[in-house]
């Protein structure tokens, strides 16, 4: 999800709008949670590295360019399976163990390929009322997730059987965050407890679906945004702004949101992460008006790992 979407919406979404602001909650974030945000943002960034998802990745440690991923590198990691260009949607990423912290981590890459961009732009919705009453989700994301999870669900379950005391984590940045969200739904519906860490993820469905995600008790949800990053709000805004609302179906964002308020280049801390409670609460990222992609490349650190970054999505 990147500048291909902005090319469609930039002119109209960028107009000033009336902001309906709900309350934010300065709930204390523990130092350990800040560390986990950093850890999984580094897993997400590392999905850009081809060495983590090509044919030779299995059995190796998770790779990250020198100077990046300092938290991740402190752990003993092992890639169980790398996957590339699963159709439809070109879904790419890797399944790995964090042996130090006893995590099974399924990581999805963001938008890099033409197939990824096509999935981003396929924003009409499909009915998923078999999952939750009245729920509809982004067709491109859903098709890509279904194709990927048909392959990955058995591998995650096999890995869990071999490591029964490990916790399942799903993570990703941008498009990867959307796929992680839908993948978490699939795993939870299969009886697993899954913690979800998404970074700069776009909306994946309508309000009923956002409420379904919010109310899930089969794991914790951490939807992390950064200042006025455009990606988490573009579908939300477009579905509420004339004349785009005639083209874009209603999209919502789940709760809670963990809104990083520190600028690019500055490490986020407990004092610069606000907890925004409530579906579609505009006290955080959704209430920002500037149209910019600059914050999208910085989540707990620089996401520009292995040169495949949000800057390349033009």
UniProtKB/TrEMBL annotation:
Query: Which Gene Ontology BP terms does the record give?
Result: lipid metabolic process; xylan catabolic process
Whether Oxidoreductase counts among this entry's keywords is: no
Which positions fall inside the Fungal lipase-type domain? 105-236
Which keywords label this protein? Carbohydrate metabolism, Hydrolase, Polysaccharide degradation, Serine esterase, Signal, Xylan degradation
UniProt family annotation: Belongs to the AB hydrolase superfamily. FaeA family.
The record's catalysed reaction(s) read: feruloyl-polysaccharide + H2O = ferulate + polysaccharide
* Stored PANTHER family: FUNGAL LIPASE-LIKE DOMAIN-CONTAINING PROTEIN-RELATED, TRIACYLGLYCEROL LIPASE, PUTATIVE (AFU_ORTHOLOGUE AFUA_6G06510)-RELATED
Stretch forming the signal peptide: 1-16
Q: What protein name applies here?
A: feruloyl esterase
Entry's InterPro entries?
AB_hydrolase_fold, AB_hydrolase_lip/est, Fungal_lipase-type
Q: Which CDD domains match?
A: Lipase_3
Q: Which organism is it from?
A: Aspergillus oryzae (strain 3.042) (Yellow koji mold)
Entry keyword annotation includes 4Fe-4S? no
Q: What is its EC number?
A: 3.1.1.73
Main enzyme class: hydrolase
Q: From the UniProt record, which GO molecular function terms apply?
A: feruloyl esterase activity
